[in-house]
Structure formats: structure tokens, C-alpha cells
Amino acid sequence: MSSATPLLETRSLTKEFRGFRAVSEVDLTVSEGSVHALVGPNGAGKTTLFNLLTGFLTPSSGSVLFDGRDITGLAPEQIAPLGIARSFQITSLFEQMTLREHLELALASPTGMGRQWWRPVSRMSVFADRSMELLDQVGLADRAGVPAGSLAYGQKRALELAIALALDPRLLLLDEPTAGMGIEDIDRTITLVKRIASGRTVVLVDHNMHVVGSLADRVTVLQAGQILAEGPYDEVRTDERVITAYLGSAHV
Ligand SMILES: Nc1ncnc2c1ncn2[C@@H]1O[C@H](COP(=O)(O)OP(=O)(O)OP(=O)(O)O)[C@@H](O)[C@H]1O
């Protein structure tokens, strides 16, 4: 992480909901090739910030720059093809569809890698090899033909990661990748994220400090919509202001 080139930058980014500032003048700088964690107590503005970065929300003021380009106000379907993918906190899979079909659909979508959405479904087999590669990357190659509904929770989250990777994103945004997981799945997810983070930039929201400490090169702590502290994990976790902020929340 020697390069100082920011892949993602926000400048005075602000989102108000009827006068309430959920995100307030946030200046975030994410270096290319880094894993950058966003943490903070409930309601700190993490999800709102993710929504601003991916175009699901439009900022009230301020800007978002990706690779030096101003992407403020672009729609999600304009932002995704630039190389920003997101995995969601809530599982969004089709229970009856097989794992391979999920990947083929992701690859064939307008924002997907091939952008060959005009191809008839019968020609989706061109994506078969890539689908298997992606499933292999997340350790699900042997489940390719089973319906997503039959997967265990941790496997569903791994499938969602594979779907996000179908874009071959430069920037991958992970919203609580270990939420609701037991310790074994958490450790498996840490290993998986480490593997897929190589060669790309990852911004991660997670409440689990073991996950953050294991993965993040840099941590930004949000509180009440503002940046409270920022730095390497070991520095941030001993910061008095951060400790105080967390003592007031459910996630100590
Ligand atoms: N659409 C909305 N309308 C009004 N208020 C909102 C809206 N979305 C979020 N908020 C408020 O903005 C604040 C930040 O919410 P946000 O979901 O971004 O926090 P968070 O850090 O992701 O919290 P959590 O850790 O619980 O997911 C909260 O007070 C929330 O109630």
C-alpha cells in the first residue's frame, strides 16, 4: 500500500434527511489497493455513506470522486460499470436458481463483465467457465448445480461475494460481510475477503472488531455522521474518543 493515489475520495460529503444530517461533511480518502474499514456505533451513517458512494442516494452537498473522476449524482447503473461493486447486507438471492445460474445472470447483466445483455439466454453458456472460476474463488465450485435456497447462511454470503466479483470491480464495497455469522464462518469469510482483496480496493463496514483488525489497512470511525477518528486499526482502537463512542453503543 505504498501508492498514495486515492481510488476513492469524498469531499465534504453530506446527506440530510429533512434537516437531519445522517452524513456530515465527510472527507474520506481510500488508497488504491487498500482494505479500508468504516466502523461506528449504530446510526453513525455507514450505510448512508455506502448508499451515497454507489448512487443509491444523492448527496445534499459535497462530492464523490472515483479514480479522480467526479461521479457525484450518477445513478447506480452508471456507477457500477465504472468498476464499483457492492455486496448487500440483506441476502438478495433467488432460492430456486442454481449457483451457476446466479453467476451467469450476473455476468450477462448490463452492468456485468461482458455487458452482453442483448445475447439470448440460450447463449449464456459462454459465461459458464467464468461462473465456475468465480464459484471456485469463493469455495463453492462443488455446489454449482444446487439451488441457492439449499445453501447454509455463510455459503449464501459467499455466493453474494462471487456475484459482486462478476463485475471484476476495482472497488468492492462490503456491507457487514460477517453479520449474523458464527465464529467458523467469520474466520472463513476473513480468509475469503483477504483472497479476493488482492489486486483490488475494498471498503468494508463491519461491527466485528476481530474482522476489522484482521482485514483493514486503515479504519475510519464515524459517529453521528462525522469522522471521529482515522488511522491504522491499532491506533484507532486505543483512541479515547473511539472508546467513549463505542461505550455508548450496543456494539462494544
Ligand atoms: N431514508 C432515511 N430517512 C430518514 N432518516 C434516515 C434515512 N436513512 C437513514 N436515516 C438516519 O440516518 C442515520 C444514519 O443511518 P445509517 O443507517 O446510515 O447508520 P449506520 O451507521 O449504517 O447504522 P447501523 O450500524 O445500525 O447499520 C440514522 O439516524 C438513521 O435513522
Description:
It holds the Pfam family BCA_ABC_TP_C. Keywords: ATP-binding, Nucleotide-binding, Transport. Residues 8-249 form the ABC transporter domain. This protein has 252 residues and is α/β, with parallel strands linked by helices. It has 2 domains: 1-83 and 171-252, 3-Layer(aba) Sandwich (Rossmann fold); 94-168, no CATH class. It contains 9 helices and 10 strands. The chain has helices at 46-53, 76-79, 99-108, 128-137, 153-165, 183-197, 209-215, 233-236, 240-247, and strands spanning 6-17, 20-31, 35-39, 61-66, 69-70, 84-87, 171-175, 201-205, 218-223, 226-231. It has a 6-stranded mixed β-sheet with strand order 6-7-8-3-9-10, with helices on both faces. It has a 4-stranded antiparallel β-sheet with strand order 2-1-4-5, covered by helices on one side. Helix 3 packs across helix 4 and helix 3 packs parallel to helix 5. The radius of gyration is 18 Å and the shape is globular. The two termini are 29 Å apart. The chain binds adenosine-5'-triphosphate (ATP). Adenosine-5'-triphosphate (ATP) binds next to strand 2 and helix 1.
Describe the secondary-structure layout.
Blueprint: E1 6-17, E2 20-31, E3 35-39, H1 46-53, E4 61-66, E5 69-70, H2 76-79, E6 84-87, H3 99-108, H4 128-137, H5 153-165, E7 171-175, H6 183-197, E8 201-205, H7 209-215, E9 218-223, E10 226-231, H8 233-236, H9 240-247
Parallel strand pairs: 3-8, 3-9, 6-7, 7-8
Antiparallel strand pairs: 1-2, 1-4, 4-5, 9-10
Helix pairs in contact: 3-4, 3-5
This protein binds adenosine-5'-triphosphate.
